[in-house]
Structure formats: C-alpha cells, structure tokens
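Structure, all three chains, one model.
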Amino acid sequence: MELEAAEALKGAIALVGYGLAAIGPGIGIGIVAGSAIEAMARQPEAAGIARTTMFLGIAFTEALALIGFVLFFIA
Amino acid sequence: MELILASAECDPAHDIICAPSDVNELFEFREAIFSLGPFPITRTVFLILGIAVIVSAVLFFGLRKKALVPGKFQTIVESIIEFVRDGIAIEIIGEHGAKYAPWLLSIFLFVLVGNLYEVTPFINFPVTSRMALPLMLAVITWVIFVIAGIKRQGLGYFLGIVWPKSVPMALRPLVGLIEFFSILLLRPLTLAIRLFANLVAGHLMLTLLLVSGWVFISSVGDIGARAGIGVAWFTMGLGIYMFEIVVIMLQAYIFTLLSAVYVQTSLYPDH
Amino acid sequence: MNLAWTVIVAQEVEQISEEGSSGAALLLPAPEELIAGIIAFGIIFAVVWKFALPALQATIEKRQDAVRMNLEAAEKAKVEAESLLLDYRAQVAGAKGEASDIVAEARDAGEAVKADIIARAEVEADQIKVRAGEEIVSERERAEADLRRQVADLSIDVAERVVGSTLDADAQRDLVDRYIDELGGVQ
C-alpha cells in the first residue's frame, strides 16, 4: 500500500518538477521577447532580422521547458 | 464527450469533478476501423491521410487556373506559397533557399492542416499532437540539415561542431560536446516536442474547458449553481479557442522557420 | 481525494505495470500513424514539388510577361500617338497658312475688283460728261441755225412788205445772212 501511495504521488511530484523546469525558460523567453521588441522599436527597418533571431532565441530557451514537459510525461 | 467521461466512475449527473483515468484517452483512438496486416487503421490514420488530400486539393484548385488576375482563393494560396518561399526559405537560407522551398512548403502545409484539425468542428483533434508526426517531420529536417552540412563542408561539418574554431582553445572540448548534443540531438527533439507539446496542451485545454463547461451547463436541472460555473468555463474555452487558432499558425510558422534556420546554420556555420 | 479517485489511481497503477508508463506512451510514435504520416508527407511533397511551385512560377512568369507586353504596347502606342500629334500639328499649321493665304488672295482680288469698278465708273462718267457736252453743242448749233433761218425769213418778209416784192429773194437772203454773220462776228 505504501508503494501504491508513492506511485500515486509520483505524478504530482513530476508536475512540480515541470513547474520548476518552466520557471527558467519563462523568464528567459520574457527577456528574449522584451529585448527583441526593444530592438524592433529602436530599428524598425531591422524588424525582420530581430523577429527571426527572437524566434531562434525562444527556441533555444524553450528547449529546457520542453525537456521538462517530456520528463513530466515519462515520470 | 464520451472521451473524457469514459470511466464508469465518472457520471456527470452525480459526480461532476471527474478526470480521465488516463491522459491517453484524449489522444488515442486505438479502436481500429479495420486492420491492414499488423497495423490498425484508426480515425487518426484517416485524418493524417486526409491532410494529404486537403493540401493537394487546395493547391490544385488554387493554382489550376493560373489566372493573370487571381481570384480570392488563388490569391490566398499564392500568398501562402510566396510567404514560405520568399519569407522563410529565401530570406533565412539565402541565395540557395529556393532549392529548399518545396520541402519547407510541404512542412508548413502539413503542420498547418494537421494543427487546424484542432479547431475544426467535429474533428477537434490535432493529429500533430500524436508524437509520430512531429517526430517524422523533425527527423526529415534533421536528415536534410545534416546532409546539407556534409554536402557543403564535407566531414568538416562534424569537426566544426565538436571542435568549434570560434571559441578559446581551453573551452573547445566543453563547447564542442554541448554543441554536439545541442545540434545533433536536441535540435530535432525540441523541434518535434515543441509542436507536440503545444498541440497537446492546446487540445487538453480546449477539451477540458469546453467539455467540462458543457457538462456543467447540461447539469442545470440537477444543481443550478453549477451552471454558472459551466458558462464561465465555456466562455473561457471559447477564448482559448481563438488563442489556439493563433498558436496553430504560429507553431506551423515556427516549425518551418526553425527548419530553415537549422539548414542555414549548417550551410553557413560562421553566421 | 475521495474513494473513487483512489480507485482510479489504483487502476492506473495497475495499467502502468501492465503497459509501462502511461504518460510516456503519449511520447512514443504509433507505427501506423508514422507510416500514414510518411505517406501523407510524401504525397504533399510530390504535389508541392512537381505541381504547386512550378505552377506558381509559371503564373508569375505569365504575369510578368503580361505586364511587360502591356508596357511595351503602351510605349508603342505612346510613340505612335506622339508622331500622330506631330503630323496633326504640321497639318494644322499648313492649313492655317493656307487659310491666311486664301484670305490675303481674296482681299487682293477684292481690292482689284474694287479698283477696276471705280476706274470703269470714272471712265463711264467721263464719257457721259463728254457726250452730254457734245449734245449741248450740237443742240445749240441746231438752235442757232433755226434761229438764223427764221430771222432771215422774217427779215425778208418784212423787207418784201416794205419794198414790195421787187427784190430778188435769193439775193436778199444772202445779204441778210452776211449781215447776221457780221452781227455774230461782232458778238
């Protein structure tokens, strides 16, 4: 029975883990997007490059959150 | 609706707070319509093949006339193709971009239609939330950007990854190791999982909000107070529905964009 | 967490032990879906590669050709119109010159006619005047002759009555005539 209880808690713990994993990327994506908007506002003619680079930066930052997401399912 | 209320313990009339016993029930339709050898032909399989039918039909009817002054439909189809070819392939990859346009356009249309199933009434199921499709697309992207790198730089492509010239000597083994994992493993994985995760999350939110909202509303006769909660949830579900349409387009765009960027970085590693 | 929930969880745990991790199953590609996906992607790629992009390219080229042809036609029409305009301008200028020539000619002709008419009228008036003078002269001569004859006759009558018809009439008439001539000469 104790083992079953531990098994039942495992999902909840994984959920907390995912939440923790999402903190860093959340802040990171915020910084990336904020900087990109700043760059676009400062140099609207370079908005295309800034947007592409922003998506790329978000993609790299997001990787950690995505790994957390996967681990949540695997756990 | 039977999906979420599959388990016998969860009777909406008596026990509203119920959850699917297994999250897979929202995503799997394993009951085969018929079987082909060892493979069950499920609803999902038909939806996946439907993507090909829909995309081919749209392209065919959109471009068949080749009218000088395009109609509304032809304009839309042409602008989608030009958006991917000029806005993604050529803009990101550069002068050789047009060569990769067919592949990028296929990815974009495939993902877009696969995603759009999520908000299509009566289908309401994004086939791209099945790991098979994002994984397949990511593997294709991986193969293409590795081949592009090898074709461009020979085996120096791998050497450039594990022994990057642009960082100080002392850091090279460490950065090389990170780069190796990042480029050859994490890139395709995150590419696949990003699409998968977004669509899974979207589908979960829509299903939970809309279905549970509906369940609450339909229980008006039993418990009046719950109907209010149901209306709130249903409204929120509709808001998320609009949000999901944006997410769908954005994810198709990002998948295509990142595929192009990955090819670009293996063609021109210094940039 | 009520009892039903725990029962569900327990069932789930059983499922996990049977099929492996339930959540992870979501992350594993189903083979039939993978195959369907490859087929669908292959079809889409073939359609895009062999039909869509060439068709779009053809349409764009057709459009470019049409635009170019229209521009060329417009250019040609413009050149033609300009040459036509020049022609018309030249024609109009010619016509204007001709018109002013005609007007000048007409004016000259009118003047000539006018001068001719005046000259002729003057000539006629002179002729009329001359003729009138001649007529007046001849009338006077005739009247003088009449008067002379009548005076002579009268004088002879008077003299006959005085002398009594002895005198030769012709000789007497000559005498009278001479006398009158002398008178006329005196006058």
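Chain C touches chain A at residues 6, 9-10, 13, 16, 21, 23-24, 26-27 (CB under 8 Å).
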